[in-house]
């Protein structure tokens, strides 16, 4: 009995410790959000969404060009990265070629661990140098490369989670394999795949490092995809390390808007996951 | 198989005409072939991108590699004016800040994962899990902003004086409290990687089949004993993977660290002292690099960072495979 009592005590203790750990993990979120809402909330105004940045020393202005720039970059990256990632994920889940899938999976793991700044340097050497200038396209390509392994891995995992019985039932009906994959397997795995895409987009929405030497930033409207483009994270970084109080306030406002954008992406994706079929 | 087919056809002769069956079978085969070729091309393309990345960095870094050889990774002077480049302080800063981050993040992350997957009451799991996922989605630059204006002043005026007064006999906690420095970098990195470790670990634990738990519970194990014996052991490899994922992120994390580490290329024993990481030096100096050699040296730092993260990830792979995790078991 005392033995059981001791075991119960340990059980309770570990439950408390685990709960404490969970609390400590969530705590920074609460603190950071508090500061974001407090500092950013007081700095956000209509100008922020409608005005270009003012010249140094002049107070006011906004970051409309950076907000639009971020959306353009996200669109470019999604256009390039999502199809590639999903197809590569399907390849991993469905191919019988053991050696090549091993290599692709291994490289996907590696690429997922490659720091985003290194990918920025890569995009610099293969896009910026040949094009002789920083450009939105280079930024979009860098972000797309970052997206691919995230999308690929979740796609593969989700496709693998589809019960074999479902696939076998479809195959037994005489449906060709590619149709089984596209019409049975993928729709079954869709919720998870959308979550993967959401995670990927949310991740690249806040990426700053790979844009430093690709998209580069721009204090004005971008003139085309082959020109430098502003991005919200870049602007926040530039303003945060500058020595002006007004810029610090705008950096907080920018951070609040960026977070809102990231969370909006997440929520829209979650909503989209649930709607079809009512599942 | 061949013997069964006519019997089936005989059962429903009007539906399954032989001619129609073979035509659809032919189109199915060619469709499959096309689809497989497409997938294979994407797979190969992916491999090519990775090889291109290593090749592009190596070519661009070649002038520095040729000039400095191994000295690049063991020398500690970084002087763009004299064009003498040694990356040791950056390697040291990257490793130290990441280790510091893992020391804080691993116990918390695993604890939170265990709580969320195993021990917490059912109603508490979704909201807390959601909060942790939100934390993982907060961009690096926002952590950096918070680090500059909240964490660093807090460390400077409260934490570092306190640590200096109580643990100051350790070389780790000596020196003036700047606020920004290795300690701030380690803490901000820990905050950043902990949600990754927690969510991946939680997902690993949730993937453990419930028979494992039921078996342990049926033998009279308490909740924690069930977790320890039946769940953690089963999901070990995935948990190692989760930690290495966190390490990989910490090694390459750029913006937040750049904003709080102090950016001084020195090797100091104290956690209070400013440092510099490989990612930070690239972020700060790449657009300012005027000479070709300077640029090549920075690209070589990127190449080194790439190599280090490749090694960490390869190690993660080998560990996961050697232990044999839930993913593998489920697949076979």
Secondary structure: helix percent of chain B: over 70%
SS elements, strand count of chain B: 2
SSE pattern of chain B, N- to C-terminal: HHHEEHHHHHHHHHHH
The CATH class label of chain A is Mainly Alpha
Indicate the multimeric state. heterodimer
Average pLDDT over all residues of chain B: 84
Question: Which word captures the global form of chain A?
Answer: globular
Mean pLDDT of chain A: 88
CATH topology category name of chain A: MetI-like fold
| Shape designation of chain B | flat
Query: What is the strand arrangement across the widest sheet of chain B?
Result: 1-2
Number of helices of chain A: 10
The total tally of domains of chain B equals 2
Helix content of chain A: over 70%
CATH homologous superfamily label of the largest domain in chain B: MetI-like
């Amino acid at each position: 009995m005392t033995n059981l009592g001791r075991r119960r005590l340990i059980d309770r203790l570990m439950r408390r410790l685990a709960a404490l750990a969970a609390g400590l993990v969530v705590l920074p979120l609460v603190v950071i959000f508090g500061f974001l809402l407090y500092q950013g909330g007081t700095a956000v105004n209509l100008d922020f969404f409608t005005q270009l940045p003012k010249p140094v020393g002049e107070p006011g202005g906004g970051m409309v060009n950076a907000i639009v720039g971020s959306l353009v970059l996200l669109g470019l990256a999604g256009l390039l990265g999502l199809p590639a990632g999903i197809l590569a994920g399907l390849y991993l889940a469905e191919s019988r070629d053991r050696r090549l899938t091993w290599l692709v999976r291994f490289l996907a793991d590696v690429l997922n661990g490659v720091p985003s700044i290194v990918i920025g340097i890569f995009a610099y050497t293969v896009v910026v140098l040949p094009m002789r200038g920083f450009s939105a396209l280079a930024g979009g390509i860098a972000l797309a490369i970052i997206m691919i392994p995230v999308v690929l891995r979740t796609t593969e995992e989700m496709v693998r989670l589809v019960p074999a019985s479902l696939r076998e039932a479809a195959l037994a009906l005489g449906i060709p394999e590619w149709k089984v994959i596209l019409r049975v397997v993928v729709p079954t795995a869709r919720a998870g795949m959308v979550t993967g895409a959401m995670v990927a987009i949310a991740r690249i929405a806040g990426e700053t490092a790979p844009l430093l030497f690709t998209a580069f930033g721009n204090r004005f409207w971008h003139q085309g995809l082959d020109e430098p483009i502003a991005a919200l994270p870049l602007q926040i970084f530039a303003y945060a390390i500058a020595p002006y109080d007004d810029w610090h306030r705008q950096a907080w406002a920018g951070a609040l808007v960026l977070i809102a954008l990231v969370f909006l992406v997440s929520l829209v994706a979650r909503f989209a996951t649930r709607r079809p079929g009512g599942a | 198989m061949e013997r069964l087919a006519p019997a089936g056809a005989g059962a429903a002769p009007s539906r399954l005409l032989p001619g129609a069956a073979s035509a659809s079978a032919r189109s199915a085969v060619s469709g499959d072939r096309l689809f497989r070729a497409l997938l294979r091309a994407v797979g190969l393309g992916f491999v090519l991108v990775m090889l291109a990345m290593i090749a592009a960095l190596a070519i661009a870094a070649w002038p520095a590699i040729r000039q400095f050889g191994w000295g690049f990774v063991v020398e500690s002077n970084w002087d763009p004016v004299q064009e003498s480049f040694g990356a040791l302080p950056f390697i040291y800063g990257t490793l130290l800040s990441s280790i510091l981050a893992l020391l804080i993040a691993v116990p918390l992350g695993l604890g939170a994962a265990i709580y969320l997957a195993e021990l917490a009451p059912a109603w508490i799991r979704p909201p807390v899990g959601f909060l942790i996922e939100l934390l993982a989605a907060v961009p690096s630059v926002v952590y950096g902003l918070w680090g500059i204006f909240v964490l660093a002043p807090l460390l400077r005026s409260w934490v570092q004086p306190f640590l200096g007064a109580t643990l100051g006999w350790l070389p780790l906690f000596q020196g003036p409290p700047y606020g920004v420095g290795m300690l701030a970098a380690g803490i901000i990195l820990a905050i950043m990687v902990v949600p990754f470790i927690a969510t991946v670990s939680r997902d690993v634990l949730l993937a453990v089949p419930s028979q494992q738990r039921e078996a342990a519970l049926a033998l009279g194990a308490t909740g924690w004993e069930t977790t320890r014996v039946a769940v953690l052991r089963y999901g070990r490899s995935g948990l190692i993977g989760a930690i290495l994922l966190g390490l990989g992120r910490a090694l390459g994390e750029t913006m937040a660290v750049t904003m709080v580490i102090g950016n001084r290329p020195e090797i100091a024993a104290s956690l209070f002292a400013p440092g510099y990481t490989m990612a930070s030096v690239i972020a700060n100096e790449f657009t300012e690099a005027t000479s070709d050699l300077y640029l090549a040296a920075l690209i070589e730092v990127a190449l080194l960072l790439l190599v280090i993260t490749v090694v960490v990830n390869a190690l993660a792979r080998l560990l996961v495979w050697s232990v044999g995790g839930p993913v593998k078991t489920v697949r076979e």
